[in-house]
Amino acid sequence: MRLGLIGLGRIGQRHAGILAGLPGVDSLVVTDAVPAVVKQVAEQLGAEAVDTPQALLEAGVDGVVIAASTESHPALLTAAVEAGVPVFCEKPLATTAFDAAALVQRLDGADVPVQIGFQRRFDPGVAAVHAAVRSGELGWLHTVRSTTLDPAPPPRAYIAASGGMFRDCGVHDFDVVRWVTGREVVEVYATGSNKGEPWFAEVGDVDTSAVVLTFDDGTLGLVSNTRYNARGYDVRLEAHGSADSVAAGLDDRLPLRSVDPGVRFPAGVPYPFFMDRFASAYRAEFEAFLEVAAGSRPSPCTMADALAADWIAEACGLSLREHRPVRVDEVRG
Predict the structure, then answer these.
(1) How far, in Å, are 15, 94, 106, 218, 281 from residue 76 at the CA level?
(2) pLDDT band at residue 160 under the 50/70/90 scheme
(3) CA dihedral over 266, 179, 121, 319, signed as positive or negative
(4) Where's the GFO/IDH/MocA-like oxidoreductase domain (predicted)?
């Protein structure tokens, strides 16, 4: 299969390495707004370099991966769909949930598959939690807990353009709890604080947040996020039911030090970065995309899924600002 990759920033270059190493990829075509980066990546991986996204779409690709900046996603997604090229696009769909909703409406009915990059769905532990919940072995679900704790904050410029804690970081948690439970979030209550760099407040964001989610069947969700977890990158998912409880992320690289006498867990070196924590998941989601592009499976994470997580994030932002519970329908309109 011949794939195209648009965007060669931090995650785009990581994706390029994965795509070039997949057995199902015969050739890779790359482009970016910075010609020197395109040249460098193409030489490193033996990929074909082109000057523009349009040239890439006209290069006979069987599928395209969009890893460019968020503000470019709507135009690039639309161009790919209109060209009839299956698309994998990193989250989010657009810079705001309202722009994302407009994009989904615009492309509604198009017969071109689109997969959105929520890699946690492809993590083996998270997938096992999903299977346990859906099989019924946990009984009826009463609580899900999802945690994302970053070792250190990204640069100020990134945070200022990211959409904030809920749309940049927590949105992964919102997507995964929807996917695992198979239920929709109807109400949120979000709070947050700033005890680190003062510029978080200056750009209208928080560096630590906590969210209570209420699902349409009464299940409760708890989401915890921070930019300051110096021990390492911590992502966990718990599902608690009437018959059993399970968790993902409790391996020997968990960045949480037990102080109980005689306890030696965890014994491993903590994950320093999200790309290390989810190395196998990124590969698995691209293997899935090859099947999507070949027409042998439906998209495992649709634009509608991404929009649903965006609306939860939007409700969290309103809840934080107004210090009250917010129903998701209130922001969706």
Answers:
(1) 17, 11, 13, 39, 24
(2) confident
(3) negative
(4) 127-245
Beta-strand relationship, 63-66 and 2-6: parallel
Question: Quick one: tokens of 120?
Answer: 């946690």
Domain 121-277+309-332 bears CATH identifier 3.30.360.10: yes
**Domain extents in the chain:** 2-112, 121-277+309-332
Q: Are 87 and 77 in contact, with CB atoms under 8 Å apart?
A: yes
| 289 burial level (CB within 10 Å; 0-12, 13-18, 19+) | buried
Q: Domain 2-112: which topology?
A: Rossmann fold (3.40.50)
Burial degree of 263 (CB within 10 A; 0-12, 13-18, 19+): exposed
Record the tokens describing residue 264, joined without a space.
């030696």
Q: What are phi and psi of 218, to 5 degrees?
A: 95, -10
Question: Helix, strand, coil: what percent of the chain each, to 5?
Answer: 40, 20, 35
**DSSP H or E stretch at residue 52:** none
**Average pLDDT over all residues of the chain:** 96
Q: Is the pLDDT of residue 313 over 90?
A: yes
| Nearest CA-CA partner of 274 in 174, 194, 195, 169 | 169
